[in-house]
Amino acid sequence: MTPQGLPTPADVHAAYVQGEEAVLALVGTLTALILNLQARVEALEAQLGKNSRNSRKPPNSDGLQKRCPRSLRTSSGKKSGAQPGHEGHTLHAVAQPDHVHLHPVERCGHCGASLQEAPPSADERRQVFELPPVRIEVTEHRAEIKRCPHCGQTTKGAFPAEVTQPVQYGPALKAQAVYFNQYQFIPLERTSEMFGDLYGHAVGEGTLVAATQEMAEAVRPANAQVKTQLRTVEPVVHFDESGLRVTGKLQWLHSASTARVTAYAVHGKRGSEALDAIGILPTLAGRAIHAHWQAYFKYPGIAHGLGNAHHLRELQCIEERYQQGWASEMAQLLVEIKGAVEEARPVQSQLPAEQLAAFTTRYDQVIAAGLQANPPPDVAAEHPKKRGRVKQSPPKNLLDRLKTHKSEVLAFMHDFAVPFDNNQAERDIRMVKLHQKVSGCFRSQEGAECFCEIRSYISTARKNGQRVLEALKKALSGSPFVPSFVSVQAASPG
Predict the structure, then answer these.
(1) Three-state SS at 88
(2) 450 alpha-carbon distance from chain centroid
(3) Angle of helix 308-322 relative to helix 394-404, nearest 10 degrees?
(4) What is the pLDDT of residues 312-341, one digit of tens each?
């Protein structure tokens, strides 16, 4: 035998001489080798066939040779560009400009006669929007010290509560430093350089780090109220998790969010240990929307819903890779149910019972057809049993998931408050992944935790129409922004 386990010509000849039993044994060895190689080739081809369009792989994994994307979205029928009612950002002239520069006419442009004494009959106006020169302002606070003529003791005036050091930066400057670094993802060195270019005063990197830590502490009470809101009030909460590099090690960024509020947390684990520590999912009052990560299902008392955008991508992969018709039928059915829900939502609270029954029957039929095309793998009786579950094909794994979690897959069909997908969580987690793409990783655990606190606050502020820089200033001034519905409802007993 060769090192690869293949028989040499001498081995084949020896088996031929020995007779039928030796030939059958040799063929059996070759068959086992072929089956093993076939399974490896199929696994490698399946891996190569996955991309950002038909799996959960990110777009940057497609490489430079990626094909033109085939979106799962369908045409909305709307014209391209801004839609009716869009606020727009066109530059309009103002009625009261800050400065007016008059450009007089001294001589006639035709005959050259002097026009200095002639009054103007009209004027043409043009406005230029420009930034004024900006520089750092220094305000000195002086507390008087006086000696009492009666008792001889001295008394000093009180400094404002926020003035605690002989020399310090104000909240507006620190808020802007956090804005550049934590919101716009500008690294510390370039943030310091930016202050020098813009204001003629470079802020040290240590000061920037200290401002970030101060901001994280300032927004923590507001984030605690948001977490309570998510846990006790919101009817539907989106969850997601993604890998994050912290001090060179893999950790996990967890998000819980709605269209109105966001909460991020970083933890060394991905599963239930992290979810328990974060403390939102274990006692969630509403429905949890997420991808099919098994740790979420360890809380049986909670209603769940699965994001079907993931299912559509996986079904597309199965259709392309395995050419199985049931996958396209299931994808079409899910999109059809989604369309029926969107059409019915403005005028009714649920689909008619007959339509629900028809969709459910079709769903079961597609699953049955898929299972017939993907029977359970055969386990030879003579082979010793291996620990764990028997490895199955991707189509069989998806079918088992769609069958077992049928109610979670179709939750959007029965409850119009449940979304079809988990796009809200994916959008919320995307900006944090962008930070990692820019900076590579977090250099300290504290830095990662501060980032999650600040980004949670910023995301919630933006979702409620707040300007980010103003919201950061409020936090450093001791009055962090909290949406009105959170401050009222989240305080109620849960």
Answers:
(1) coil
(2) 17
(3) 150
(4) 999 999 998 889 999 999 999 999 999 999
